[in-house]
Design goal:
Distance between the termini of chain B: 7 Å
Structural class of chain B: alpha/beta
Number of helices of chain B: 5
Oligomer: heterodimer
Strand content of chain A: 25-35%
Strand order of the largest sheet of chain A: 2-1-5-4-3
Largest sheet of chain B: 7 strands, mixed
Helix content of chain A: 10-25%
Helix content of chain B: 10-25%
Largest sheet of chain A: 5 strands, antiparallel
Distance between the termini of chain A: 40 Å
Shape of chain B: globular
Order of helices and strands of chain A: HEEHHHHEEE
Number of strands of chain B: 14
Order of helices and strands of chain B: EEEHEEHEEEEEHEHEHEE
Number of strands of chain A: 5
Radius of gyration of chain A: 14 Å
Strand content of chain B: 25-35%
Shape of chain A: globular
């Protein structure tokens, strides 16, 4: 694999020290890194999966709204941050691979480096409640 | 290409009987090609001596700044070609997120820090901001790859290539910062893309292992980390550089001997010192 951009390397280093689940995706939407807290959402560790294509990680959990209606991909904060290149926030419900339903706040923002280089996006997950 | 060392010290010039062998001037390295292209890597206090020996009829010089910390720009106004009319000097280096390269340099080249401003220099200056979107530029006979590396404030590392060889210059670099393990996978190691397979790697070797815990985040490597980085990048020849001003010649000898003994590198190792010239076959 080619070396990641320096801003992405630093983002990974920071995420490894934080307790909030964090996803880092590249401009193509592929998941290039997720930290240990995010493993409870994906049910797999980064050391097992490595890079995960968007088509794969987006189907691992089925996000729904508070009424149980599926949320289309284009309304997910991470997709908005990637495609529209602005921050986005949404409350969603997901079922982790452990079977627990979680109400989660998702904050996503585009990663734009020196010289306006678009490097992908970061999503931070905040657990609000469980059922 | 001929790679010459004019200043090897980091942070602060350190002239002293105890540093006379490796040198007391701060960072400056020149790279000369066969067609007389001259690249100057950083403008620490060592650049003053370089300015004296460059041919008086040299009309174009490229200064590649890694970043704008004082030990990398302090010698700039003392570089003799800047005071010559008809000389074209191209300065390459990082802008900040809000200020241009020129504006950032003028903070130093203006009162009260310095009495002469950029406008008063006789040479014609051209500023080029890095990184650009492409990372790679052609300068004379060289192809130069410029990428951000881990060091406080935007900092550029350079890989200079001629037809069959590459020299990489990472004088201020802390690839181990924040990494849970070091060295880790190449994909997640700062500077790897620049250094990979280099014929010559000039790399930060500022601290001992004992000093590092109190200096994490200062943007520098231990000698041991630098040796391991060179190994990860599979370089052919490693040149430690950017010595801490508190390290005497005797201390540096001991640090290099310890690292050689522990790591037993597969590459050649030559500590940088003022006056050293290395030939890299293109």
């Amino acid at each position: 694999m080619p070396q990641q951009e320096i801003e992405v390397i630093l983002a990974r280093h920071l995420s490894e020290y934080l307790v909030m689940p964090i996803f880092i995706v590249n401009p193509a939407g592929d998941l290039v890194f997720y930290n240990e807290p995010a493993e409870t959402i994906l049910g797999q560790s980064y050391s097992e999966t490595g890079l995960m294509p968007a088509s794969e990680w987006s189907t691992v959990f089925n996000p729904v709204d508070s009424q149980g209606r599926p949320i289309p991909p284009e309304e997910l904060p991470l997709v908005i941050a990637l495609q529209e290149r602005h921050p986005a926030h949404k409350i969603i419900w997901i079922h982790g691979l452990d079977g627990v339903a979680r109400e989660i706040g998702v904050t996503a923002f585009p990663l734009i480096g020196q010289a306006e280089r678009f490097l992908g996006a970061i999503a931070i997950f905040w657990e609000i409640s469980t059922k | 290409m001929k790679v010459s060392f004019w200043g090897t010290r980091g942070s602060l010039a350190a002239p002293s009987p105890e540093t006379v062998r490796y040198g007391g001037n701060t960072s400056c390295v020149s790279v000369e090609g066969s067609d007389k292209t001259v690249l100057v890597l950083d403008a620490g206090t060592g650049i003053r001596s370089l300015g004296w020996v460059l041919p008086i009829d040299l009309k174009q010089i490229h200064i590649l700044l890694t970043h704008l910390h004082m030990d990398h720009i302090q010698g700039l106004p003392f570089f003799a070609p800047l005071r010559r009319q008809g000389v074209e000097i191209h300065i390459w280096g990082p802008a900040s997120t809000t200020l241009s390269l020129s504006s950032r340099l003028q903070k130093y080249l203006s009162p009260p820090l310095f009495p002469v401003s950029v406008r008063e220099l006789a040479a014609t200056l051209h500023f080029h901001e890095l990184p650009d979107q492409l990372h790679v530029m052609e300068i004379g006979e060289f192809k130069v790859n410029a990428q951000l590396i881990i060091h406080p404030n935007p900092t550029i590392g350079y890989r200079i290539e001629c037809e069959h060889a590459a020299v990489t210059y990472l004088p201020d670099h802390e690839p181990a910062l924040g990494a849970r393990d070091f060295p880790r996978e190449t994909e997640w190691t700062s500077g790897f893309a620049l250094a990979e397979g280099s014929d010559l790697l000039i790399h930060d070797a500022q601290y001992t292992e004992e000093e590092y815990p109190d200096r994490v985040g200062f943007g520098h490597s231990t000698v041991r980390q630098a040796f391991l980085f060179a190994q990860l990048a599979k370089v052919k020849h490693f040149v430690p550089f950017h010595y801490d001003p508190t390290h005497s010649d005797a201390e540096l000898d001991r640090m290099f001997a310890e690292a050689m003994s522990e790591i037993k590198p597969s590459y050649a190792m030559t500590p940088s010192r003022e006056g050293l010239s290395l030939e890299v076959v293109c």
